[in-house]
Amino acid sequence: MSRLPVPGPDALALSQALSRHIAGAIEAAGGWLDFARYMELALYAPGLGYYSAGAQKFGAAGDFVTAPELTPLFGRTLARQAAEVLAQTGGEVLELGAGSGRLALDLLRGLAELDALPPRYAILELSADLRERQRALFAREAPDLLPRLHWLDALPERFSGVVLGNEVLDALPVHLVHYRNGIWQERGVIQAGEAFAWQDRPLVDGALFELADKLPVEGDYLTEISLAAPALIRSLAAMLERGVLLFLDYGFPRAEYYHPQRSQGTLMCHYRHQAHADPFVLPGLTDITAHVDFTAVAESGFDAGLKLLGYASQAGFLINCGITDLLQGQSTTDPGYIRQAAALQKLMSPAEMGELFKVIALGRGLTQPLMGFVRGDRSHAL
Fold first, then answer.
1. Which runs of consecutive H residues, i.e. helices, occur in 117-276?
2. Domains defined for the chain, CATH in brackets
3. CB of 350 within 8 A of CB of 343?
4. Which terminus of the chain is more solvent-facing, meaning fewer CB atoms within 10 Å of its CB: N or C?
5. Ramachandran region, residue 310 (left: φ > 0; alpha: ψ -120 to 50; beta: rest)
6. What is the pTM (predicted TM-score) of this model?
7. Does the keyword Transferase apply (predicted)?
8. CA atoms of 279 and 258, how far apart (whole Å)
9. Which DSSP state fits 230?
């Protein structure tokens, strides 16, 4: 990993502090920590984890660029789908993990253009640092919209409207399971001197084993199973009275996720716009993600009483919601037109985000189909 940029002294000190914290957790657990717990600490340990500390994460100065950072047309397009749901429910918007706040800003501006502003835009954001960045963004660029924002510490008991998660599910902790010599093992983390190392342990019972044992794999096969994503869907379903859970993320249906050729899983790390596969490098400074098993997401929603309202590629969803119309509505002589057109190419190209990213909608109590899935719905693939 010598090719990765070298962090500054303060960032390195934070990473070292988190490493000591994780080492303490490994010791407290008896010398072995399942990877889901390691990932949870690396990303969310208070004041130390990747999403809990104060480092820049989004945009050109951070570690990766998300769709809202590319163009405001992304949020304005989602506003069209949100407006359709709000018209049926009279509800609000709840965004999970709002990141820089850019999606919230563009979506609210889009809703304002449609004369469909909700009374409240709630954000469930556990990072105090990100909350302040979101608040500062609105105070700087849209102070008139700031009073509509409300930050939550936990999910509300009851909710109607749109629940939105853009690149949320991929950041939830995953367990690593390893099929070898005809048996399942769980891959965990141990302390090896001053570093962390992998160690497998037999997996013979429990919920994780039951899920692993159903996978159609053979040979030497390492992959991820998320218990956190279905748990989140169940919690959201329990509060949703009427409305939609809308998630945009990269991933596959189960048959593609656990394809025989994907024998090393999908776990990936991001640091300063460079991807690598070692989650032990610079803990707290490196993002750790895994692709989403959208079949598991759909099943958990169905089991919780929700209806699958659509599943499509990001490109198909955005086209259905009119993103190209929004671009055409801009003057070609505008200095930003070429930049916006290039951003749309990245969002929608099959070679970029258009095919890898998917959109799934689960809901309750709606009587009209969602515009984002009127063409190209792939629900049958789940």
1. 128-141, 206-213, 228-239, 254-257
2. 57-173+226-381 (3.40.50.12710)
3. no
4. N
5. left
6. 0.94
7. yes
8. 21
9. H
